[in-house]
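Case study B.
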Amino acid sequence: MSLFLDALQWLAEPTHWSGANGIGTRLGEHVFITLLVVVVAAVIALPVGIAVGHTGRGRTLVVGVLGAARAVPTLGLLTLLGLWLGIGLKAPVIALIILAIPSLLAGAYAGVESANRTVVDAARAVGMSEGQLIRRVELALGAPVIIGGVRAAVLQVIATATLAAYTADVGLGRYLFAGLKTRDYAQMLAGAILVAVLAVLAEILLAMWQRRARRKASPAARERQDSELSGNGSQV
Amino acid sequence: MNWLSHSWPWIFELTARHLALSVPAIVLSVLIAVPLGRLAYRHPRAGGALLSAATLLYAIPALPLLIIIPALFGFSLRSPATIIVALTLYGIALMVRTAADAFNAVPAEVRQAAMAIGHSPRQTFWKVELPLAIPVLISGMRVVVVSTVGLVTIGALVGIASLGTLFTDGFQRGITASVLTGLIATVILALVLDGLVLLLGRIATPWASQHVAIKAQDTTREVSA
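Model:
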C-alpha cells in the first residue's frame, strides 16, 4: 500500500501539475487527441455504417472486416505505423483513427438496423423520403446503439492513446514510460491512476448519455438493459 | 526477410510464452464468469451491480492495470502473474454479461419440465440449464479468446515476454519484419484458438448438429415430395 501513498504524494506535488510535462498539459493532450480522433473516425465510419444499416448492402463484408479488426493487436499497429511514419504525432493519430473505426461502424449499422422494421415501413407509407426516414426514424430509434459504439470507441482511444506515448511524446502515457525507464514506480503508478480515472469518468458520462438516449428512443421500456453494446467493444 | 530466416526459434519460443499467458487467463475467466453470470441471473439486483462493476472494470486501460495490479498484490512488475490476473479480470468483465444472458435464454418451461420429471435443482443445473446455455457461453468465450490473445502483447511494454516482444524489439531496432511477424502471428494465434473453442462448442452440443441434420433431412424430403 505504501506504493499507492508514494503515487498519491507524487500527484500532490504542485510542480508536477504545471509546465510542458505537467499533468495539466498531458491530460489536455490526452483528452484533445481522444476527441480529435473520435470525431475524425466518426466522420468516416458513421455515414458508411448508416448506409450499410439502411440498405443492408455490404453487411457481410462489414461484419467480416469488423471481426478481423478485433483480432489485430493495437500495440502492433502502433509500432508498425511508428516505424513507417517516424516518431511524432502522425503515426499514433492514424493508428488511433483506424482502431476507433470498427466500434463506430458496428454501432452505426447495428443501430440503424435495430430500428423496428414495422415502424420504418409505416414511416415510408406515410410518405417520408429516404432521407427523412434515416434522420427522423432510424437514427432516432437507433441512437442508443450508435452512442454505444461511440462509447466503445472513446474508451478504446483513451486506452490506446496511453500506448501512443511509446512512439510519440504525448499524453498521460508519458508518465508510465518515463517511470518505467527510470524505475520511478511512484510516477508510473500515478500516471496509471490518472489514466484509469479518466477512462472511468468517460465511461460513466457516456453511459449516462446512452441511458438518456435510450429513454428518449423507447420511453416505454425504462431502465432495462443499460449497457449492451458498450462492454463488448474492444479493449487495449 | 533475412531477419525472419534466423528468428524462427525465437518466434516459436515467444509463441509458446504467449500461449502460456493467454490460455490460463482464458480458462480462469470462463471458470469464474460462468458462476458469476448464473448468480447475476438468479439474483437480478445483485447481478445488476455486478454487471455495472464489470463494465467499469473493463473501462480501465490495460497498461495502467498492468502497473496497478503489482502494487495491489505485491507481484513484481515483470511477473507473468500480473498479466494473467489482469487478463482474467478483463475476461470476466467481458463474459459475465453473456453468461447471465446465456442462462436467461434457457426457457422456463424446460426448467419446469426438468423439475416435473424429478430432477433436483442441482441436476437441473448440470443436466439441463448448463448444456442449453453452452451455445451462448461459447459465443462469449470466443470474444474473450480474441481479446485476450491481443491484450497479452501489451505486457511486452513492461517486460513480460510474448509475441508483443516482437513489436517492442522490432520498433526499437527498426526491424519492420519483426513487427509484421508479431502482428500476423498474433492474429493467427487468435484465429486458431477461436477455431478450437468453436470446435469445443460443437463437441459439447452434439444435439445441435443432429438438429441440423434432421432439418436437412426434412428439407430433402420436402424437395423430393
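The mean pLDDT of chain B is 89. The remaining cases will be described in the next quarterly update.
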